[in-house]
Design a protein that fits this description.
The chain is of the alpha/beta class and about 200 residues long. The chain has a single domain, classed as Rossmann fold. It has 5 helices and 9 strands. A 6-stranded mixed beta sheet has the order 4-3-2-5-6-7, with helices on both faces. A 3-stranded antiparallel beta sheet has the order 1-9-8, covered by helices on one side. Helix 3 links the parallel strand 5 and strand 6. Helix 1 packs across helix 2. The longest helix has 18 residues. The two termini are about 25 Å apart.
Length: about 200
């Protein structure tokens, strides 16, 4: 059972649902009457995106980006390559980036800067989780679900070696699990990075 690898449930399914509804209500109010595009950074943000968009009461479009950030086994270098770009133009549109977790902020900073060159009406950020203690590049974050401690968390879209995304809660992974799963060294989970940072 995947749950056996979890040391602690950090955020319950019920808390995730309630906070997502709160964020959706704020976003629906803030963007009322505007053309909104939800931009999900693959892969970790997908679960959050799906539940968030179901709670919105305003029309919106969705699009996706996939990013590769090169670095050593423990951190993202900030050198970024776009693996999948947007399918639609954002010229004159309001863009809301939907992230699973913001850690160092390096890759998110690149994404925001890249999008700004495409002349959107605005670019803002909504993240399910934030680790402010890990921040190296300050990026304005407009909507935050939860601030979390510097632990490796999985579930609700967040993975370790492509496992645990399907858990309905956010949990802290047991350290001994790292030694049981054989994965390439560049995917080692310290420190944790966003889906944008760790997609290779």
């Amino acid at each position: 059972m995947l749950e056996d690898d979890i040391a602690q449930v950090l955020i319950s399914e019920q808390a995730l649902r309630a906070r997502t509804e709160e964020l959706a209500a704020r976003i629906s109010c803030d963007y009322a009457g505007e053309e909104l595009i939800l931009l999900c950074v693959l892969k970790g943000g997908v679960a959050f995106l799906v539940d968030l968009m179901r709670c919105l009461t305003i029309p919106h479009a969705i699009d996706f980006m996939a990013i590769s950030s090169y670095g050593n086994s423990t951190e993202s270098s900030g050198v970024v390559r776009i693996l999948k770009d947007l399918d639609m133009s954002i010229d004159g549109k309001h863009v809301l980036i939907v992230e699973d977790i913001i850690d160092t902020g390096r890759t998110l900073s690149y994404i925001v800067a890249n999008l700004q060159t495409r002349h959107p009406a605005s670019v803002r950020v909504c993240t399910l989780l934030s680790k402010p203690s890990r921040r190296e590049v300050e990026v304005p974050v407009d909507y935050v679900g939860f601030e979390v401690p510097n632990e490796f968390v999985v579930g609700y879209g967040l993975d370790y070696a492509e496992r645990y995304r399907n858990l309905r809660f956010i949990g802290i992974l047991k350290p001994e699990v790292y030694r049981k799963i054989h994965i390439p060294s560049q995917e080692l989970p310290s420190p944790q990075v966003s889906s944008a940072d760790k997609e290779a």
